[in-house]
Prior knowledge:
Elements: H1 3-16, H2 22-41, H3 53-56, H4 62-65, H5 73-94, H6 96-120, H7 133-146, E1 151-154, E2 157-160, H8 164-175, H9 181-195, H10 206-212, H11 216-222, H12 234-241, H13 262-267, E3 271-274, E4 277-280, H14 281-285, H15 289-314
Antiparallel strand pairs: 1-2, 3-4
Helix pairs in contact: 2-5, 5-6, 5-7, 6-7, 6-9, 7-8, 7-9, 8-9
Amino acid sequence: xxxxxxxxxxxxxxxxxxxxxxxxxxxxxxxxxxxxxxxxxxxxxxxxxxxxxxxxxxxxxxxxxxxxxxxxxxxxxxxxxxxxxxxxxxxxxxxxxxxxxxxxxxxxxxxxxxxxxxxxxxxxxxxxxxxxxxxxxxxxxxxxxxxxxxxxxxxxxxxxxxxxxxxxxxxxxxxxxxxxxxxxxxxxxxxxxxxxxxxxxxxxxxxxxxxxxxxxxxxxxxxxxxxxxxxxxxxxxxxxxxxxxxxxxxxxxxxxxxxxxxxxxxxxxxxxxxxxxxxxxxxxxxxxxxxxxxxxxxxxxxxxxxxxxxxxxxx
Length: 315
């Protein structure tokens, strides 16, 4: 793969999915590295695909390599986008270490079952398959078995949640090149079986995943700032995905409301202070016609008394 193609993949992922997680980043990086290596070496087509060659020629290594192998750049780009959009929520619920372990487990079992099916119908079979699409479909099926939602929406249309993986099976089998429908069906069944607990004896616990994530490769993933590493512990995972906001005192402006009583307003015309806010009584209370009338009446009465007293003294 040329440098321009690699920059295009990175730019698309950065623009469309700015908050990519560590597990997705590692899967994407591995797929791009394998594609660049096979392009540079000009390796034979289908050398890392999974199929009947697992039993006929002993190509057991293809059970681990086929998800990261892509025949064309178009298949690579569509496969990465499918994996990111359909499997992003699974890593947030499992953690990065457990997510990678579950992905490898389900893809390996999918490849093994498909190799057996391809062996049985070798004469008119579909041939070897590769790409991240089977892994993504298995993750979708696993997610739908754990969700409590009964309805899902796709393009404004409501579907039962359990039907959603099979809709993605049809869409990906038609739109993404070099995908095989039987392999996609097997991967969806594997994801459903894993969600039902059929492979719980092979799963990794949170305690073991917490120990593994302290090793060197995952410490390197933690150090990358552009990706988010999801811890295995439930408590740490909540702190990472839902950080608490603790604002410092005084960082937010607070407006003080100072409703003064009518008795205080009538008894004083000076400016009062309430929680640091100045409240002039004239502005708050407004004109008081009764008080004004009373004040004018009192003044008139005092002037009248003064004139009366002045006239009496002259007499």
